[in-house]
Specification:
- By secondary structure, the chain is mainly α.
- The protein folds into 2 domains: 1-45; 49-257, MetI-like fold (Orthogonal Bundle), CATH 1.10.3720.10.
- Helices cover 81% and strands 0% of the residues.
- The chain is built from 10 helices and no strands.
- It has helices spanning 3-38, 50-63, 65-97, 99-113, 121-127, 131-156, 160-168, 173-207, 216-225, 229-257.
- 30% of the residues are buried.
């Protein structure tokens, strides 16, 4: 294969193919919007079409509405993720290292993992004095399981000989954790965080339907109540774009700080 054909293949794969996918998605969106707007029974929802949604998005960006909605949501997601990491990483290390603990927690944790985080909403409202605390709790409940299980899986894959060498060199438990376990499972932890970010971002919007007066979930609910469907569609685009960026940032961290024996 010549360098020219390699370049064209790379260009087609990295530029042309993604642009084609975006074009198909926009075309499908435009067709659905046209059908909805042309039908008298659904004409009130014509604001979902690309043109009004993108125009409203531009106006919202210009007026600062997007930043005012996004900032509180990112703060809540970040706080919930910090709690999830602080709980999930030590718990995952313990489960991965201790077979007895792993056996004792398997059924309870799998049971809890399968419960929708939003099912905890009534308990969160009763248990926390503020709406903010309840939302952060729901986000943490959604994010803790991917981090815990991904960390535990990484610890289980560590070569037992590494621990033997560390012990022979006189490593204390804390030194072994710092120099063997955490470096070995960094990629697994970051992979769990990436999964947790996706789950937390999905849970965020319905969680913000609670009594707060800020954030993307509140803005979506307000746009629905005021029948501003172009604003609602614009907010959906914002949510998708930010989620895409967050996932890309997590993937970049995995590539930067992760490693493998094949590398």
């Amino acid at each position: 294969m010549t360098p020219g054909s390699q370049f064209l293949g790379t260009l087609r794969r990295r530029v042309a193919a993604p642009l084609a996918g975006i074009a198909v998605a926009l075309a499908a969106w435009w067709m659905v919007g046209h059908v909805v707007g042309a039908n008298p029974a659904t004409a009130n929802f014509a604001g979902f079409a690309p043109a009004p949604a993108l125009l409203r998005l531009g106006a919202m960006i210009g007026h600062g509405d997007v930043v005012r909605s996004v900032a509180p949501s990112l703060f809540r997601v970040g706080k919930g993720l910090l709690f999830a990491i602080a709980i999930g990483v030590p718990l995952g290390v313990g489960i991965g290292r201790n077979q007895t603990l792993r056996a004792a927690t398997h059924i309870p944790f799998q049971f809890l993992r399968m419960i929708s985080p939003l099912a905890w909403m009534p308990l969160a409202v009763m248990g926390f004095p503020s709406w903010e605390g309840a939302i952060v709790f729901l986000i943490a409940m959604a994010a803790v399981w991917p981090i815990t299980f991904s960390t535990a899986h990484g610890v289980q894959r560590i070569d037992p000989r590494w621990f033997k060498v560390a012990r022979n060199l006189g490593a204390e438990p804390w030194q072994m954790l710092r120099t063997v376990v955490l470096p070995a499972v960094t990629q697994d932890i970051l992979t769990g965080v990436r999964l947790a970010v996706g789950v937390a971002w999905i849970v965020l919007v319905p969680a913000e339907y609670l009594g707060v007066t800020s954030g993307l979930g509140y803005a979506i609910n307000d746009a629905r109540d005021t029948l501003e469907y172009d604003r609602l569609a614009a907010l959906v685009l914002v949510i998708g774009a930010i989620g895409f960026v967050l996932d890309g940032a997590c993937l970049a961290m995995i590539r930067r700080f992760g490693w493998s024996l094949e590398a």
